[in-house]
Design brief:
The structure holds 2 protein chains of 2 kinds. Helices cover 24% and strands 15% of the residues of chain A. By secondary structure, chain A is an alpha+beta fold. Chain A has a domain at 60-168: 2-Layer Sandwich (60s Ribosomal Protein L30, Chain: A), CATH 3.30.1330. The termini of chain A are far apart. Chain B is mainly beta. In chain B, 8% of the residues lie in helices and 44% in strands. Chain B has helices at 58-67, 89-94, 140-156; strands spanning 14-15, 18-20, 40-44, 71-74, 99-107, 112-121, 126-136, 165-172, 175-182, 189-194, 198-203, 209-214, 221-226, 232-236, 242-247, 253-258, 265-270, 277-278, 286-291, 297-302, 309-314, 324-325, 333-338, 344-351, 354-361, 367-369, 377-381, 387-394, 397-404, 410-415, 419-425. In chain B, helix 1 crosses helix 3. Chain B is elongated and about 70 Å long. The chains are: A alpha+beta, B mainly beta.
């Protein structure tokens, strides 16, 4: 079965560029001010009283995203209370298990970005264990640039994607 | 020998747009390959009776040779020799042909096709090679690629890669397909399809298996899949992230990147998932391993020095923090892949706001940028080392591109719909 529709031959001569030595900015753009970003809440479920603190929109535990500055993997002060609340929940619920998924923006190598996302997830994990969660309750992983929430190719989307999401087992 | 997989729907078939240095039937003699070498003028006469087959041979041979950038097609213009005795060399000299390909096809009872092909040197008026093969009618494309390989090898002295295959990922909407196609883009077939991302496909050295990273279980896991049987196994599914598989040259082991022991570090595992052994030991990120052809060392990306750069370390059997830094130009050098002769490696170099394919000679440390596009990713060598296949972006869409290792010839490959990315060029077919 023939799959290829056409073969175009177009003249193209690419000059060999000489090696570049121009110093460059980092891959993530520092001009972005993501500090005002608020944490994200999960969808509310209507009129039914919600007794699960993990999904109750009035509970801090329903907030599941930790955002990071450009080229940074340190948990910012504004997310300390959020991370501590989840750590407290894990401490109080010994059978609870959480999956921390690190994410990055789309620029650069996919595998290197996977490692950068891992570093962000590991940061949140470390903050949680310092606040009393057991390490065995937490798995930190990375989705790299593969699962962007912001789909644009601009700073707003990139900032949206510099993020760790907190998921609980069964979710 | 022929690996069969279910056909992929034509709607997402691969459309390859080859951009090469010479237009079809070029009257110009454009110098395109290094050292001032000129294109070889070659005439390919349609083989006797090939129009009666379900697949003509000579158009495929001509397209293969043209894509290499090393040949210029001479029109037979009415001449139709099929046997050497029918060739009047002076007529071909007048047309400017340096080489001449003639041949015949014979449909045999039972659906087999007998091929007889001759490559002639017009100036010396001698036969350079004969190719005789009987193939099932369904394998005429493969036979045509073998004929093109034979011609390429006789006339350039290099190894032909027309019979090889490539793997890549197509993203269309929310669907991801890991596909394998012939090197000319035909016979695209899905190895797996998911609604979750797939990255980093890597061919086993025998071409029978693909390792890749799938996110189907909410995190990256390394699988090895056998193409012929479609069976697959999670070979690295440890706590944390598992990624960046690279085959050892003997096909027995994989280098993978795990966060199992903290950070992202390089480990070795057996191809069946056993025998885990730590390889790198740093406080930074170590990822994207690529084996040297002798299997004695790996090159990889690490940010241990503050920015991502390419390093080389020996495989000693013990975890080691010692590695030699190879790249020094710029603050972002990633995704290294060794050449087959072990003398150079290709990688992505950030140049201002551009990410470009570069090649570095290991002995001289000389770096050459091969592209000037905006978002190049994932470069790897064709098995003859003459071409580097990589992913790039044109008008917001992901496409594949190939550049000659001297940077002078480029080709583009795209799909009808969706994004193509994460290419990997397969090995040479094993000699039977």
């Amino acid at each position: 079965m023939k799959k290829v529709l056409c073969v175009l031959l177009i003249s193209l001569l690419s000059a060999c560029a000489s090696q570049s030595t121009q110093p460059t900015a980092e891959v993530e753009d520092k001009s972005m001010g993501s500090s005002s970003r608020s944490t994200e809440s999960s969808p509310t479920t209507g009129a039914v009283p919600n007794l699960n603190p993990l999904t109750d929109p009035n509970s801090v535990l329903s907030k599941r995203s930790v955002y990071f500055d450009f080229d940074s993997y340190s948990v910012k002060d504004e997310y300390r209370s959020l991370v501590q609340a989840h750590a407290q929940y894990l401490r109080d619920n010994g059978s609870a298990r959480t999956l921390l998924q690190g994410n990055t923006d789309e620029r650069g190598s996919r595998e290197y970005n996977l490692a950068l996302g891992q570093r962000r997830a590991d940061s949140v994990k470390n903050a949680m264990t310092l606040s009393g969660a057991r390490e065995s309750q937490i798995e930190s992983v990375s989705l790299g640039e593969e699962k962007p929430r912001g789909l644009g190719h601009d700073e707003a989307s990139w900032a949206e994607n510099r993020r760790v999401d907190i998921r609980y087992q069964g979710e | 020998m022929q690996i069969r997989l279910p056909e992929f729907p034509p709607s997402v078939a691969v459309l390859f747009l080859w951009l090469i240095s010479a237009p079809l039937h070029a009257a110009l003699d454009i110098e395109i390959f290094g050292g001032g070498a000129t294109q070889i003028p070659i005439a390919i006469v349609p083989f006797a009776a090939e129009e009666k087959l379900n697949q003509s041979i000579t158009p495929i041979v001509a397209a293969d040779l043209q894509r290499s950038g090393l040949f210029r097609m001479i029109e037979p213009a009415g001449l139709r020799p099929h046997e050497p005795i029918e060739v009047v060399y002076s007529e071909w000299i007048n047309r400017g042909a340096g080489a001449l390909v003639i041949g015949s096809t014979t449909l045999l009872p039972g659906g087999q096709v007998a091929l007889r092909v001759r490559l002639l040197d017009v100036a010396k008026q001698v036969q350079l090679a004969t190719y005789i093969e009987t193939v099932p009618a369904g394998q005429l494309r493969a036979a045509a690629h073998r004929i093109a390989d034979m011609i390429y090898e006789k006339l350039t002295g290099d190894i032909g890669v027309f019979s090889t295959r490539i793997a890549y990922v197509v993203k269309e909407g929310k669907r991801y397909a890991l596909q394998v196609a012939d090197a000319d883009g035909f016979n695209a077939q899905s190895v797996i399809e998911y609604t979750e991302p797939i990255i980093s496909p890597a061919w086993s050295p025998d071409g029978k298996q693909l390792a890749y990273v799938s996110f189907e279980n909410k995190k990256p896991v390394v699988y090895v899949q056998t193409l012929a049987t479609r069976t697959r196994k999670a070979v690295a599914n440890f706590k944390g992230s598992n990624s960046a598989p690279a085959w050892s040259p003997d096909g027995k082991r994989l280098a993978v990147v795990l966060s199992l022991m903290g950070g992202s570090q390089i480990f070795l595992i057996n191809a069946d998932g056993g025998g885990l052994q730590r390889l790198s030991q740093s406080s930074g990120i170590d990822t994207e391993p690529s084996f040297s052809p002798d299997g004695q060392s790996i090159i990889f990306t690490s940010d241990r020095g503050g920015s991502p750069q390419i390093y080389r370390m020996q495989i000693t059997g013990r975890a080691s923090g010692t590695a030699e830094r190879l790249t020094f130009e710029g603050s972002y050098n990633v995704s290294p892949h060794y050449s087959q002769d072990g003398k150079s490696f290709t990688f992505i170099h950030r140049n201002g706001d551009r990410f470009n394919v570069a090649i570095q000679d290991l002995a001289t440390r000389q770096v050459q940028l091969l592209t000037d596009s905006k978002f190049d990713e994932s470069p790897s060598f064709a098995p003859n080392g003459r071409i580097i296949l990589y992913a790039t972006e044109v008008k917001g869409r992901g496409i594949l591109s190939a550049v000659s290792s001297d940077g002078k010839t480029r080709q583009q490959l795209s799909t009808q719909a969706g994004d193509v990315r994460e290419p990997a060029w397969g090995p040479l077919p094993r000699l039977q």
